[in-house]
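for the recovery benchmark. tokens below, seq after
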């Protein structure tokens, strides 16, 4: 049964679009709808490997909520920042070097084709496509095809979300409605007041007045939800760990990547994302752990560590017996040197001294490795994924030298058994229960009859 696509747009960045799409995917799925998520273009250094390449972690989570296999069509364009004014462009899961080098305003037509084709394929395969917008559709200085062009192309019903916790939600909603192109305005059918704290009845007559002025129906007031999804940009600190739990210290690299993989770890340990070497003081060699996470720009993040004397702190912790683990880019940092003969990072060939804690050398390759892998460690097999240019000596994926270890495989800390083996703390998976709580919130706080009407053909 083909349904009209539903598009969740936001008045601002970080208005809660990703969470709403995740909740709606699970809610429609458990109501018998074959639903797929879609975001034409995402910007994030947190990605997941799927069949065909890599996509943003938000769409990977949304596919999980929908109960479908994630694939590259769900996020056909992924921008991965490499510097303040430079991003790697990933199209249908694969890096496109030509587009990455092209000026931003010259890319639009080349990017629109995979966006439109991916949407069309999903719409033909599934009953319903729930589309996530990007930023705001009212950025009138930009040529916007991720929000405005896409909602018109899909003829989707628009659900406009505002983060009421920031204040000014009614102005945000009205201003966005007023500034978007007419084709978008005609499709903005409803709005959601998101992340509300308190008594929702106190909001009237605000929602009714907004409906009178815009004809957008109020789809509901979603409260500030306590949930266990990782933040899209990772580096989440939540007080979930039991009292007396081990400490885990992770440098917060400027170009850190795949940081969301440590979210479950926060249920077992007191995770701290740090920028100051003082955070290493008092680490217990018998219990605590230092993790060097993934990096989109290993050389730049090593330079950043040295500027802050974090390299000295890591070496000191290792000398005092504290366990140090490097993951992907972090694994490369632990060796003697990193050789980039073709300038994969930054465009200029370079040789970089590592931390010298492992007897390894990393060589950057011209082609990115993206694949799902199984790693045998602690007497068990764990499923993970690799997203990297660097190859350690001999293609090694896991290496242990005393209290220092390295792996090129992401996703290990999403396995409760791996966390237990590393830290001796038992944790339980959280994603499935979180998806269900989000769908329960849709039932409790949104107008589900209106949602059904919005997608009815």
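predicted aa per position
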């Amino acid at each position: 049964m083909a349904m009209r696509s539903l598009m969740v747009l936001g008045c601002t960045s970080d208005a809660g679009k990703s969470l709403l799409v995740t909740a709606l995917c699970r809610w429609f799925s458990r109501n018998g709808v074959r639903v797929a998520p879609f975001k034409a273009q995402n910007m994030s250094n947190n990605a997941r490997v799927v069949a065909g390449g890599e996509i943003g972690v938000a769409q990977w989570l949304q596919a999980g909520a929908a109960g479908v296999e994630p694939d590259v069509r769900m996020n056909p364009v992924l921008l991965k920042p490499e510097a303040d004014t430079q991003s790697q462009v990933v199209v249908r899961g694969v890096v496109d070097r030509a587009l990455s080098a092209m000026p931003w305003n010259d890319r639009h037509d080349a990017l629109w084709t995979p966006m439109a084709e991916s949407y069309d394929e999903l719409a033909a395969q599934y009953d319903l496509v729930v589309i996530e917008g990007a930023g705001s559709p009212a950025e009138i200085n930009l040529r916007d095809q991720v929000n405005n062009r896409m909602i018109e192309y899909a003829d989707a019903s628009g659900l406009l979300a505002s983060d009421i916790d920031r204040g000014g939600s009614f102005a945000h909603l009205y201003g966005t409605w007023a500034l978007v192109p007419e084709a978008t305005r005609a499709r903005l059918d409803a709005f959601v007041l998101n992340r509300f704290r308190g008594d929702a009845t106190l909001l009237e007559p605000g929602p009714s007045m907004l409906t009178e002025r815009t004809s957008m129906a109020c789809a509901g007031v979603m409260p500030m939800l306590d949930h266990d999804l990782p933040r899209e940009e990772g580096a989440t600190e939540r007080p979930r760990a039991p009292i007396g739990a081990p400490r885990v210290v992770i440098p917060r690299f400027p170009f850190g990547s795949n940081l969301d993989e440590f979210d479950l770890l926060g249920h077992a340990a007191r995770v701290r994302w740090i920028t100051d070497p003082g955070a290493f003081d008092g680490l217990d060699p018998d219990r605590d752990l230092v993790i060097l996470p993934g990096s989109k720009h290993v050389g730049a993040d090593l330079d950043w560590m040295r500027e802050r004397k974090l390299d000295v702190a890591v070496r000191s912790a290792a000398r005092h017996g504290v366990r140090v683990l490097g993951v992907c880019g972090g694994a490369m940092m632990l060796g003697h040197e990193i050789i980039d003969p073709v300038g994969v990072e930054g465009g200029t060939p370079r040789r970089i001294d590592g931390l010298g804690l492992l007897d390894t050398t990393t060589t950057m390759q011209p082609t990115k490795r993206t694949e799902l892998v199984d790693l045998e460690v602690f007497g068990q097999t764990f499923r993970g994924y690799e997203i990297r240019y660097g190859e350690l000596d001999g293609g090694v994926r896991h290496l242990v030298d005393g209290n220092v270890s390295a792996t090129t495989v992401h996703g290990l800390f999403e396995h409760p058994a791996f966390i237990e083996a590393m830290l001796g703390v038992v944790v339980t998976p959280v994603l499935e229960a979180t998806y269900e709580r989000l769908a329960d919130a849709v039932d409790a706080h949104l107008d589900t009859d209106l949602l059904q009407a919005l997608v009815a053909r």
